[in-house]
Amino acid sequence: MKLYDMGLAPNPRRVRIFLAEKGIEVEREEVDIPGGANLSDAYRAINPRCVVPTLVLDDGSIIDESIAICRYFEAMHPSPPLFGTTPIEQAMIESWQRQCEFDGLFAVAGVFRNRSPNFAGRSMPGAAPSLPQSAELAERGALLTAHFLERLEARLAASPFVGGEAYSVADITAMVVVDFAKWVRIRLPETHAATLSWYAGVSARPSAKA
Amino acid sequence: MKLYDMGLAPNPRRVRIFLAEKGIEVEREEVDIPGGANLSDAYRAINPRCVVPTLVLDDGSIIDESIAICRYFEAMHPSPPLFGTTPIEQAMIESWQRQCEFDGLFAVAGVFRNRSPNFAGRSMPGAAPSLPQSAELAERGALLTAHFLERLEARLAASPFVGGEAYSVADITAMVVVDFAKWVRIRLPETHAATLSWYAGVSARPSAKA
């Protein structure tokens, strides 16, 4: 089993934090995305979709969606549970994980990929069509990120963790969103007391450094 | 338990198909999204996010992401499994379900919400910021939809179902994408033989009419 990884990028970081929380060690190989290594012929032969992270299993199967990789490890190593245990816990964590992705991670990515000079001509991930950067999309992304942070604050004012009573994969995504947002100079407002307190807690976990 | 539903929209349809495949009956109430009922005070009191579908449980909890609602029912009624059983099945179905959503459903929604006169001034779902429609986003959506359909064809040329050997939630999302794409006049190319054959099969299931 091998995990194709990239130290700085938010999606691979989600998987590394997940593995650290589970105490699972996996062989890793770094892929230089800014240098374009994910679009090389060598990497394309591993994963034609050219995205990172990609998990290659011993039978040659590849799993290349961060949350799908996490679900694989959750099924193989159920403890500690990071996708919930009861049906309602599972549903709430799934719901919040998705909201943190769609409304948070995708919004920040919209700003970053449409503004960063490194991504000129490839505002979409991996082998997706190479669309030009769009100032309009960057602006929308910034507006939606701010909206997401408001909703996150409301949620964390009412719940100790994003998915409910316990730390879960939803916290991993939300923390990664907060850190990724700094790349595009969007910071947690000082008035977001609940989020700031939660963020201090999740960032202090050893897994946050993974 | 009550499911807030909308007959025509693609996301509520995913949940209805899922329930039909499981043989589960749930009380439903129709929400008139084109008429703006999801943004009414009455609906806002049920779900401040103003999205449909929303499942309200007997204890008052709400679950308002289609796939989170499906996961709730999968946990409550595991048979027949629609999210896979073994770790690798679960991961592959999760991966493909996500790809069908991100690369397919979101792409078509990008065209529809940015072109349909009914969605002028509310190109984002529910209570998200009311962004103006964007011709650029509609055009990108059409391009990404075409790219997704190519990838779906490649997948179905190699696999009987989208998620693998058995019908799953990934097929539900993919079928809904194909039908939703017709709303924006994107049809399966005649050359996509594997997808056309798969589509005929999944559309003939009684659940497709749910």
From TrEMBL, chains A, B:
Key word Transferase present: yes
Coiled coil: none
UniProt entry keywords in alphabetical sequence: Transferase
Superkingdom of origin: Bacteria
Occurrences of domain GST C-terminal (ranges): 86-210
Gene Ontology MF annotations: transferase activity
Domain GST N-terminal: residue ranges: 1-81
Spans through the membrane: none
Name of the protein: Glutathione S-transferase
UniProt organism field: Glacieibacterium frigidum
